[in-house]
Each structure stands twice: as structure tokens, then as C-alpha cells.
Amino acid sequence: MTNAFYSQFAGNAIKSSVLSVEVLRDALLPNLLGDDRSGILYWAGKDLARQFPVAADEDLVTFFEQCGWGHLIVEQAANDLITYELTGEPVARRSFAIKDPDFMLETGFLAEQASTRFNCVSEAKITFQNKMRIRIAVTIDHDQPLLAHDPATPIEIVRPEADQQPAPDDAPTNPDA
């Protein structure tokens, strides 16, 4: 169900309204969740990552763009620490429009993606935040493997047509050659 759900909406040329997403994310949820907002959104991000596992960093970047979370890059990757930077119009828009924007959904999502990828406990925290960029550090604890972990099959990322390159067999032929 998850892969079909993702494919249906990620491949849809008609994108949802930014307003509809922001009303839910930054008007409704903070009122519903109150002071526990950050913690709940962190765990919600982890749950989303279990529903939408990705296979590689490039898929993670595409997924973030498609969700409207911003442009994600891997700043640094080591055995026990991955540092991401989240930038772009969604980050700036939310940062300028909202007094205290919360990016814990994205933080939890990255923590769980690392847990799934490395099959061990991983946690994430925001280490830097200004109005234009967020830095998220994911700590991977290889000494705490996940027990009875049955990772889900990664979703098949839908790539925008402009990013797709034709296969060698699809190359146009020149009948005059």
C-alpha cells in the first residue's frame, strides 16, 4: 500500500497546495499537540520513515523535495555520524512566516532512515538552525543493533521526467548514417 500511495502522489503532475500543507503542519498540529509538539513530530517522522523507507541518499534527497520539506544534502558521512543540511524555499518560507518553526518531523525521519539502513539504533538532533538552513546530525550506535528487525522493502522513487535520461536503446537513430 505504501509504495502505491507514494507513486500515485509523487508522480501526479498536479501538486497539492502549499497552503493546505502549511495549514495542517503549522496551524492545526501545534494547537492539537501543544507543548509536546516537537517530541510527537519527531516520533511521527520516525513512523513515516518506516512507512516510506528509501534505499540511498539520492532517493532521500528526492523524497524530501517531493514532500516539500526542502533541499537535503549530506554534509558529512562517517561510520557513526551523518550530518545533513536542509535548505531551500520551504525552510525559508516556514522560518520567515512562523515565529518558531518546528523541523522535528524531518529530524525523526532522518533518524529512522539511518536505523533502517544500518540496522541499529540511530537518533538525530538539530545542531544548527537559522532562517535559511537547518543542520541535522544523525548518530548511529553500532553497539545497539536492532533485534528482530525486518526492514521494509524500499519504495521505488518516482523521478521527475526532466531528471530521467533515455536508455541507450532509446537513443534516436539516424537513418542517413
TrEMBL record:
InterPro entries: DUF2507, NO_sig/Golgi_transp_ligand-bd. Residues 163-177 have a biased composition (Low complexity). Residues 158-177 are annotated as: Disordered. SUPFAM superfamilies: Ligand-binding domain in the NO signalling and Golgi transport. It holds the Pfam family DUF2507. This is YslB family protein.
